[in-house]
Amino acid sequence: MKVDPPSEPGAKEQVRQLLDRLPDSVSLEDIQYHIYVREKVARGIRDAEEGRVVTEEEFDRRMSRWLSP
C-alpha cells in the first residue's frame, strides 16, 4: 500500500507560521526578506531533488570565466 507524504501547508499557512516565529517588532522589509529566502531555499531543494544541479567541476569551469583577470 502506497502512502502519500504529508502535504505541505499552503502559502498562507506557511506565512502565518513564519510570522508566529518572528518577533513582534519585525519590520515589513524583514518579513519580505524571510519570505524571499524561504522561497529560494525551497526552490534549491526542489532543483536538487529533480536533478537540476551541476558538479563542482562544472561550477568551477563556469565561474573561471567570470573570475579570471
Molecular structure report:
The protein is mainly α and 69 residues long. It has a domain at 26-67. It is 65% helix and 0% strand. The protein has 3 helices and no strands. The chain has helices at 11-21, 28-49, 56-67. The N and C termini lie far apart (59 Å).
Keywords:
69 residues; mainly alpha
Short structural description:
The protein has 69 residues and is an all-alpha fold. The chain has three helices and no strands.
Tell me how many strands there are. 0
Shape: flat
Distance between the termini: 59 Å
- Using only C-alpha atoms, the radius of gyration works out to 18 Å
Structural class: mainly alpha
Helical fraction equals 55-70%
Contiguous helical run count: 3
Unreliable spans are none
Task: Provide the fold topology.
Layout: H1 11-21, H2 28-49, H3 56-67
